[in-house]
Task: inverse folding
């Protein structure tokens, strides 16, 4: 080949299939932020970004013996296809777990095992929502749910929260406004306990009000409850599902209380929806992994999981306190809630700062967080960041916050420098 | 001397096969702590895959606390290192200094040359002196805005360089921290974005034209250019997202230029490679201005080698098998005595 311009250039697109994808895949794009998170996984970086549970206290030695025994005795079942609804043994085992949050009227047949909560979100959205339908959701909203809703081209409409969670009056206002526009509202998605990312919990008083409003307008509630057992004082709140078995689909997971690597979660749904969920599960994955489900049952049957969760509560409380104390010491210019449970502090940063734009500077300083913009579908959230206290040790948390304070100070200096046209030069 | 025609014919380079590959061991260093870690990991694993395909024994290793021991321990010490770290510590010469001190042969430019190319303002100056045009620019650290007052300096910049401007970190890659400024009001935000990635900004007159990259390979002592690659995006912006996402970005190979312009840009890439003292492999980026003149933007000593990167795409369009091409580069370097680098 020579450089003869009469010879047509080869045209190479960086994706020859561009233009062939479904519309719902168009928003799936790489981003600078994703690139930066590749660095956040390095041990030099104090990552206050990820929501990984700390697994260092799991009894892996004993667990490996029990799992070995399970494989010897039931290996053929563990490695075989299973039921699309999930292993009956596990569906039975989740009942006492749900009872801790007041759900005492569920049967194993009401339960569907799914491949992690993310899969549950996918399934329920798939069977309930057409493109353009409305899902009401707390703002800020769990980023994983936003991704699912976007992929089904659902219109996510935000409902404000305050320190007591979803505000019932504003929920009803929002519903009325949407209905007035002729929108089809299909679901209300809520994380009522120790919210991700906001850290707040829906008060006991508000729960029946929210249920009443949803029932009044025939809107299904999707109750996502991965953190409900991780209240630091051991307190649990009554699940919405415990008060209404007809209008609530309940979703919970072993990811935060046992092991995210197993990818095992469960849903409890009214009979019609439950049937559709089973069919959708079968269509999507045939069946959840028997090996994962039996590993979970092996753990639940042979170990004191309640004591383990209690231990986690104490550990996460200590880490929450470490972060709260460090924020008070190093970042008094910020404001935040002090969560009663869960994994996250939702930090409001000083005016003028943009958490997303500041992230490269933070990565350079070897500390990572998630920008608040990730938790909105409308570009809001740059004035907040989510800080996770679940995985790093208290000492690392303090160091991370110290680094973050330096980043914020430096960024503020730069912002003020360029945004204040009348600023005097700094004297040396 | 140009050997562009040779590089456009894959048969010019003898294909490597598993059977005639020596037993030399290769370590590709990728990852690191820079903002471009993600791209580097992808580059490293792609190169590893193609070299394995050619029969080489190849491992990848992150740049971390275990690397030096791995590279120097007699049981794991490789015969050859291919540093594929993008960004600081990878392209600024640091890792190459370490390799030289460890007396390990490696593919790519030496530390000093890497350091020169990494610093875009310095590289622009050297390349300009070698006769290649480059957009007029100034290089300013964040501190100068602080000391003299940002408003005054921003005003002076616009009055002096005019608009539009292109603002980028003075070092770094993958278009991170880069912004086009068409209005004076956009300049402060562009500088803020830039300073999030580094302390020094290169503020360049934005040249309108065709964005072209030319990759240079040095195999068996011969400098060769791969066909010039033209980058086209719908909005004219080739940012990070456009670089790494599947999307509408198109490459035209060779670039849609006249014969003379293609020749000129190939020669300009060779001149930049030589003037900067680069070795083995480089990719130089240009804008072909409205007069058809190549305007030098920057040279990369560790060009991206991902599935969507420009060097591999140019090579494929020229008819190369990547596994053969990378294998030839490895053979070429292994055949040289690099004990003194």
Result:
């Amino acid at each position: 080949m020579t450089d003869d311009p009469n010879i047509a250039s080869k045209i190479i697109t960086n994706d020859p299939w561009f233009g062939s994808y479904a519309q719902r895949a168009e928003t799936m794009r790489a981003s600078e932020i994703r690139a930066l998170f590749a660095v956040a996984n390095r041990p030099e970086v104090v990552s206050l970004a990820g929501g990984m549970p700390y697994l260092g206290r799991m009894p892996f030695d004993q667990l490996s013996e029990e799992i070995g025994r399970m494989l010897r005795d039931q290996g053929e079942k563990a490695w075989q296809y299973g039921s699309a609804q999930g292993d009956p043994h596990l569906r039975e085992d989740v009942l006492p777990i749900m009872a801790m949050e007041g759900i005492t009227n569920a049967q194993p047949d009401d339960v569907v095992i799914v491949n992690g909560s993310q899969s549950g979100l996918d399934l329920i959205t798939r069977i309930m929502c057409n493109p353009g339908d409305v899902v009401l959701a707390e703002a800020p909203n769990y980023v994983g749910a936003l991704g699912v809703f976007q992929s089904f081209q659902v219109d996510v409409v935000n409902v404000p929260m305050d320190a007591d969670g979803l505000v019932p009056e504003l929920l009803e206002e929002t519903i009325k406004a949407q209905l007035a526009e002729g929108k089809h509202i299909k679901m209300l998605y809520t994380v009522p306990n120790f919210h991700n990312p906001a850290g707040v919990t829906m008060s006991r008083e508000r729960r029946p009000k929210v249920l009443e409003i949803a029932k009044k307008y025939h809107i299904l509630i999707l109750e996502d409850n991965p953190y409900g057992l991780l209240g630091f004082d051991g307190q649990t709140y009554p699940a919405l599902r415990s008060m209404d078995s007809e209008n609530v689909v309940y979703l919970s997971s072993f990811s935060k209380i046992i092991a995210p690597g197993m990818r095992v979660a469960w849903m409890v749904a009214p009979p019609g929806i439950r049937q559709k969920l089973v069919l959708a599960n079968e269509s999507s994955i045939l069946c959840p992994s028997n090996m994962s489900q039996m590993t979970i049952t092996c753990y639940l049957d042979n170990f004191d999981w309640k004591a383990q969760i209690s231990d986690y509560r104490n550990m996460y409380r200590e880490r929450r306190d470490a972060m709260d104390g460090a924020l008070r010491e190093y970042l008094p210019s910020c404001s935040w809630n002090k969560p009663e449970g869960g994994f996250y502090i939702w930090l409001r940063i000083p005016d003028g700062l943009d958490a997303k734009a500041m992230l490269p500077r933070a990565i350079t300083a070897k500390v990572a967080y998630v920008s608040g913009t990730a938790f909105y579908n409308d570009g809001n959230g740059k004035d907040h960041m989510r800080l996770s206290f679940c995985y790093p040790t208290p000492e690392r948390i303090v160091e991370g916050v110290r680094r973050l304070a330096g980043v914020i100070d430096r960024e503020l200096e730069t912002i003020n420098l360029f945004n204040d046209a009348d600023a005097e030069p700094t004297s040396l | 001397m140009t050997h562009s025609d040779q590089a456009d014919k894959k048969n010019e380079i003898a294909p490597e096969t598993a059977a005639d590959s020596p037993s030399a061991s290769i370590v590709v260093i990728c990852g690191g702590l820079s903002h471009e870690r993600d791209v580097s990991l992808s580059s490293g694993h792609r190169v590893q895959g193609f070299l394995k395909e050619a029969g080489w024994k190849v491992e990848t290793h992150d740049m971390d606390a275990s690397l030096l021991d791995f590279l120097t321990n007699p049981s794991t010490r490789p015969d050859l290192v291919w540093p594929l770290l993008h960004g600081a510590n990878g392209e600024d010469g640091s890792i190459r200094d370490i390799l030289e001190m460890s007396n390990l042969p490696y593919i790519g430019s030496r530390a000093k040359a890497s350091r020169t190319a990494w610093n875009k303002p310095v590289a622009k100056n050297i390349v300009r002196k070698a006769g290649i045009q480059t957009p007029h620019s100034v290089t300013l650290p964040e501190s100068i805005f602080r000391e003299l007052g940002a408003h005054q300096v921003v005003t002076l910049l616009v009055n002096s360089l005019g608009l539009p401007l292109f603002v980028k970190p003075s070092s770094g890659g993958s278009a991170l921290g880069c912004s086009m400024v068409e209005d004076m009001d956009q300049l402060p935000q562009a500088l803020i974005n830039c300073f999030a990635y580094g302390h020094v900004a290169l503020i360049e007159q934005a040249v309108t034209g065709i964005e072209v990259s030319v990759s240079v390979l040095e195999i068996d002592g011969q400098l060769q250019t791969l066909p010039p690659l033209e980058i086209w995006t719908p909005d004219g912006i080739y940012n990070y997202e456009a670089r790494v996402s599947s999307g509408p970005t198109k490459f035209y190979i060779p670039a849609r230029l006249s014969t003379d312009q293609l020749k000129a840009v190939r020669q300009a890439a060779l001149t930049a490679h030589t003037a900067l003292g680069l070795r083995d492999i480089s990719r130089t980026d240009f804008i072909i201005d409205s007069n058809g003149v190549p305007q030098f933007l920057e040279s990369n000593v560790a060009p991206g080698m991902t599935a969507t990167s420009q060097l591999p795409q140019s090579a494929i369009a020229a008819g190369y098998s990547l596994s053969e091409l990378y294998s030839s580069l490895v053979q070429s370097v292994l055949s040289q005595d690099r004990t003194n680098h």
About this structure: Chain B has three domains: 25-107, 116-133+208-301, 137-205. Chain B touches chain A through 63 residues (CB under 8 Å).
